[in-house]
Amino acid sequence: SRAIKTNQDLLPETPWTHIFYNDFWGTLLTHSGSHKSYRPLCTLSFRINHAVGGMDPWGYHLVNVLLHAAVTGLFTNFSRILFGDGYWTLIAGLLFASHPIHTEAVAGIVGRADIGACLFFLLSLMCYVKHCSTRGSSLSTWGWILGAGLCAGCSMLWKEQGVTVLAISAVYDIFVFHRLKMRQIIPALYKRKNLTLFFSIGLLTTWGTALLGARLYWMGNKPPSFSNSDNPAADSDSFLTRTLTFFYLPTKNLWLLLCPDTLSFDWSMDAVPLLKAVSDWRNLHTVAFYAGLLLLAYFSLKGSSNERECNGKAVMNGKQNANGHSCHSEMEYKTLEVKSNFASKEENGVKKHETQKMQLPSTENIVILSLSLLIVPFVPATNLFFYVGFVIAERVLYVPSMGFCLLVTVGVRALYVKAQKRFLKNLVFSSTAALIVFYGLKTVVRNGDWQNEEMLYRSGIKVNPAKAWGNLGNVLKSQSKISEAESAYRNALYYRSNMADMLYNLGLLLQENSRFSEALHYYKLAIGSRPTLASAYLNTGIILMNQGKTEEARRTFLKCSEIPDENLKDPHAHKSSVTSCLYNLGKLFHEQGHYEDALMVYKEAIQKMPRQFAPQSLYNMMGEAYMRMSRLPEAERWYVESLRSKSDHIPAHLTYGKLLALTGRKSEAEKYFVKAIQLDPTKGNCYMHYG
């Protein structure tokens, strides 16, 4: 809703340059309540969607699916560099295409930020791969590294984690292209070997620092602030609780990649209970996860100590191994005949091409790259450098899942090579095929959950009952299932009793069904839970005003009008509620005959009114106040303004018609009365004024 439906940056009347100053939700990036999610290219794509198809969801979904297809193609192409042509590249591509963790990013429109970031992430990586292969032999190499830098910047402008591609490029250059071991990096630097390598790494570091610095400056040099429910661990007073929980969360994320059995649209609040003690059994998962990760990284970085390479072939203890390669299989270390155009020389008008044999990377090198691709893009979501506004978010795993898919593929390949018997090899292949099929089936089932809001929220009840029941209540209410909606709201409050939004929504439901005393009770609870909830003050004041408690209503409206929008998640909605409060306060003064006071309040409302606020009623009441004070020219001006802002606003037709009749312009007045009747033939008030 906030990213698209109510985002003013998507509307044609809003200058498109606003996209580059506002966050993902349309709030000014430097505002204290901004989410600081700076994703202008994603917002621009939404704006293009809006310009082409308005609010029809079909076009938005089509773009998401096409982007996912493009990313899958690029990822498969990148896998060829690591695995060559053959089954392993196909397996890596199919794993990525079918993984259920991608459902939220592809089926959920706002997930486009992750898909777009991944698209430019891969484009940047592919450009850098080209730079590596042409470095030192062609001027085009600088074009490729420039392309890598620009695509990395674009990836960051789709979503923040896109900038991590620069680190992945460095890992590729060191461990895959140059095949250096950890122990060889420092000596190579001291001996001034591979200076072009370190120059490229220096360029990546400089560009990455510049991008991060610009990003921090543009968002006002301040991190975002989040509510307790968004990230409960970050709000915990206990250092032990924060540490244990933050260490555990990556383990939970890896499990979602490995076994995406339980998925949810929202993992905030208490979806993942905090780890408050060392005795919590989940700490065993954490220890096992980090131990496995460190061992895998250690053996990959260390490499094999009892083998050396000779002309691209492994020699073990002075003897060449069975297939002549350091890989266990001819499929893995199959050599590629590559035409080396950049190394060609022209002698006597005839070009001579050198033929190079390029080996595919070793298993250890692919594991290092896969781990980097799994871990580094996920680092911004770990709360390591700054707190984030979620506990777990499946869409955030879209980019890291590439590393997971490569890791699974290289692991399966190692098992296949190790297997001596044909039966075992077939078993490995069959198991991998079954995994891909099961992932695909789970994706189809999960897609069904995303068919509509009701199914989506019902699917999340098991993981996050408070949030799921609350959202389900909103859906049921929109379907006019009042009793079911009330039950859903009460279920949400059973799991989390201090949710201001749910207390407010339940109060609104009760108010709309004329249960005013109960509605007031829940509005007061909502205000107690969140004193800045302007909409709760607004509806409280309206009920009090209708009950004749004018003094209480006046105090409530005044208190609402004084609430600042600092540190609020949705300042636009807050300003709309404050404007409505001032409008109703003006009406209160108007009904009491205090027209001067009413005008002062109306003018304040106009000053505080946000862009998306519909002002026709406010302008019409301004005209009414001037009319009662016999200041007819000013009254006419505001009636015209009301009709200009909404041409089918019936009250303005009637009030302006009355003014025209009063000033002797009867034929003009008749047009407005007739127009009002045409707009709503069932409204008796229109006939009365015309009569």
Overview of the molecule:
With 691 residues, the protein is mainly alpha-helical. The protein has a domain of 76 residues: Serine Threonine Protein Phosphatase 5, Tetratricopeptide repeat (Alpha Horseshoe). Helix content is 62%, strand content 4%. The chain contains 28 helices and 5 strands. The strands form 2 sheets. It has a 3-stranded antiparallel beta sheet, with no helix packed on it. Strands 4-5 form a two-stranded antiparallel sheet. A hairpin with a 2-residue loop joins strand 1 and strand 2. The protein is elongated.
Share of helical residues: 55-70%
Choose one word for the global shape: elongated
The CATH class of the domain at 615-690: Mainly Alpha
**Biggest sheet: strand arrangement:** 1-2-3
CATH-level-2 architecture of the domain at 615-690: Alpha Horseshoe
Question: What radius of gyration results from the CA coordinates?
Answer: 32 Å
Write down the overall mean pLDDT.
Answer: 87
By DSSP, the count of extended strands is 5
CATH topology of the domain at 615-690: Serine Threonine Protein Phosphatase 5, Tetratricopeptide repeat
Query: Can you tell me the CATH superfamily of the domain at 615-690?
Result: Tetratricopeptide repeat domain
Number of helices: 28
Largest sheet: 3 strands, antiparallel
**Secondary structural class:** mainly alpha
Please report which band the strand proportion falls in: under 5%, 5-15%, 15-25%, 25-35%, 35-45% or over 45%. Answer: under 5%
What are the segments in which pLDDT stays under 50 over at least 5 consecutive residues? 305-357
Subunit organisation of the chains: single chain
Q: What is the terminal-to-terminal distance?
A: 44 Å
